[in-house]
Amino acid sequence: MTTVKRRPGPAAQHAFRLGMLAAVVGGLAVLAGLYLHDVLTTTTALYVLLALFPVYLVLAASALSVWLGYGKDATDLRPVYR
Questions:
Q1: Measured in Å, how far apart are the chain's first and last C-alpha atoms?
Q2: pLDDT grade, residue 69 (50/70/90)?
Q3: Helix or strand run (H / E) with residue 35
Q4: Angle at the Cα of 50 (from 72 to 64), degrees rounded to 5?
Q5: Residue 54 and residue 36: Cα distance in Å, rounded?
Q6: Could you count the other beta carbons within 10 Å of the beta carbon of residue 49?
Q7: Which residue, among 16, 24, 20, 23, has the nearest Cα to 71 in the 3D structure?
Q8: What residues does each domain of the chain span?
Q9: Among residues 23, 29, 26, which one has the least CA distance to residue 63?
Q10: Residue-wise DSSP of 60-73
Q11: What pLDDT score was predicted for residue 2?
């Protein structure tokens, strides 16, 4: 029996954009809050912003894409012929 493959639709695209926007705003709010409460120094805050924040965004995008059905696996591959 074959399984039916469905592609994510416009609602998933909107949810992905909204989720990424929430991740960016939430991450920057936490970073700003830690900086304003003197938990982070200026140097540490810049390091987190420039080095760790992009990694956080990639992880957030990966989690959202799997959750919303954008993930691919071996069944999505097809043979290539010349």
A1: 29
A2: confident
A3: helix 10-36
A4: 25
A5: 21
A6: 16
A7: 16
A8: 25-69
A9: 23
A10: HHHHHHHHHT----
A11: 62
pLDDT in tens, 16-64: 999 999 999 999 999 999 999 999 999 999 999 999 999 999 999 999 9
Residue holding tokens 């939430």?
Answer: 26
Q: Which residue has the tokens 């409460």?
A: 37
Residue 4 confidence (pLDDT): 61
* Amino acid symbol at 54: P
Phi, psi of 73 (to 5 degrees): -135, -170
User: Residue 2 corresponds to which amino acid?
Assistant: T
Query: Tokens at residue 50, please?
Result: 């420039």
What span, in angstroms and rounded, lies between the C-alpha atoms of 20 and 16? Answer: 6
* pLDDT surpasses 80 at 73: no
Contact 38, 24 (CB under 8 A): no
Q: How far is CA 31 from the centre of its chain?
A: 17
